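User: Here's a structure from my thesis project, written as structure tokens. My advisor, Dr. K., wants to see whether a designed sequence matches the one we expressed. Can you design one independently, without my sequence as a hint?
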């Protein structure tokens, strides 16, 4: 039985857009206040540079820290140790429970957040080998969600071309999805790539398609995708002018 359109489109909006919460490793959930962990103290006129995620565990420990008597140094040190212990136990226990549950596939955002938190906590302890393992798990999980979003894009373009929301969603993913990342040279696949190709195939005569392709050919952060967008735009222009 086919899913009613008004239910189906919000479902794919969730698959495509909610995962954009994971465009940085500092994924948030509805119960956690946002924390700015990027080192970006750029002043006007300083030029451009890449933001770097702070890796110290400072935020995670502070969140669990309960300030004792501010004049009692020993109590403050003990409170810091207690905060570290509680945070580790909570994160490790919750992560283990989620990863071993039957609902693990539906808890990917929370699992990614916990791996990121544990990476930060191991950094706080100075054990970077363990920290890196958790950060690598974050990256692997983000790649998996990219595959989910690619499948959703293809299904929208294939089965829901006549829905007025479909093209809007595809355009958004063609510009705003996190993948492919700028450094992806060997792995030439990603949601922005799939969305651009779907738009080119499904809406070649829409005047906005050529505008979008030219804009992506100029501004997409991934070099090979800029080249592909230019190729797609040239192909549409050649067809429109009667070329081969």
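Assistant: Designed independently from the structure alone:
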């Amino acid at each position: 039985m086919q899913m009613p359109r008004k239910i189906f489109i919000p479902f794919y909006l969730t698959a495509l857009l909610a995962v954009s919460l994971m465009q940085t490793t500092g994924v948030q959930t509805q119960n956690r206040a946002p924390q700015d962990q990027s080192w970006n103290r750029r002043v006007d006129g300083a030029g451009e540079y890449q933001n770097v995620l702070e890796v110290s565990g400072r935020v995670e420990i502070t969140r669990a820290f309960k300030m004792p008597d501010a004049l009692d140094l020993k109590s403050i040190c003990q409170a810091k140790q207690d905060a570290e212990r509680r945070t580790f136990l909570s994160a490790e226990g919750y992560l283990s429970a989620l990863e071993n549950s039957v609902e693990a596939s539906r808890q990917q955002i929370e699992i990614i957040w916990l791996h990121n938190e544990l990476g930060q906590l191991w950094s706080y302890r100075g054990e970077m080998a363990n920290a890196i393992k958790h950060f690598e798990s974050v990256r692997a999980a983000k790649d998996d969600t990219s595959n989910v979003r690619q499948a959703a894009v293809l299904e929208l373009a294939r089965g829901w071309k006549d829905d007025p929301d479909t093209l809007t969603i595809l355009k958004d993913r063609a510009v705003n999805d996190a993948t492919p990342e700028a450094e992806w040279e060997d792995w030439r696949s990603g949601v922005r790539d799939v969305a651009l190709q779907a738009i080119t195939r499904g809406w070649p005569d829409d005047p906005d398609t050529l505008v979008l392709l030219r804009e992506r050919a100029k501004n997409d952060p991934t070099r090979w995708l800029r080249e592909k967008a230019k190729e797609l735009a040239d192909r549409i222009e050649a067809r429109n002018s009667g070329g081969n």
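When you compare it with your expressed construct, this may help: The beta strands are 38-39, 52-53.
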